[in-house]
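Entry 14: structure prediction run for PLATZ transcription factor family protein. Input pasted below.
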Amino acid sequence: MGGGLDDDDGVENNKWPLWLRPLLQTSFFVQCKVHADSHKSECNMYCLDCMSGALCSLCLGSHRDHRAIQIRRSSYHDVIRVSEIQKYLDITGVQTYIINSARIVFLNERPQPRPGKGVTNTCQVCERSLLDSFSFCSLGCKIVGTSKNFRKRKMCMDTDGSDTEGSLNGISNGYVKSRIQSFSPSTPPPTVNYRTAKRRKGVPHRSPMGGLIIEY
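Run finished. Output tokens:
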């Protein structure tokens, strides 16, 4: 796959189904090129047998006897219902959420600058805050976090003894980031208004009349 992933990363000994990485790399909720004139042309389906990219509901007519799943959206991130994906994939260790009365999991990592105060458990890969009973925030992070190369590097950092915390952070910021970027791009970070962010107050000048300070 693209992004320079090693062959051992999460696929050693056929550990993961062949359709998983293509699924995570697929861009959903785009207009179907075949059925662009239909009001049902939004591509939010995926065929696990064909692995031919995102499909709209009208495309499913050509995949009647295939395993098709539906991708949904939560806060601009792709998710899938647990009831659908657990029939084909072991999601043990991946944190689940309840959205619109349905339990879901996220497909890919969601950026989080730093864990909040009082957080006791984070994703082993991207350090996103998690409940104590989970190890990964998404399916993509589970692929990376259970790969031989990742575990080997993390073990080396743990046994090094010097600046363990900083070393582990180095894993997330270097090795892990390059692997996660091989999947579908995460939601872009919030737009920063640099004009406002870099605005500096002028030097205060004392008014010749009275004690009023005027800032330019």
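Notes: Confidence is low (pLDDT under 50) at residues 1-7, 162-176, 184-197, 211-216. Will compare against the previous run tomorrow.
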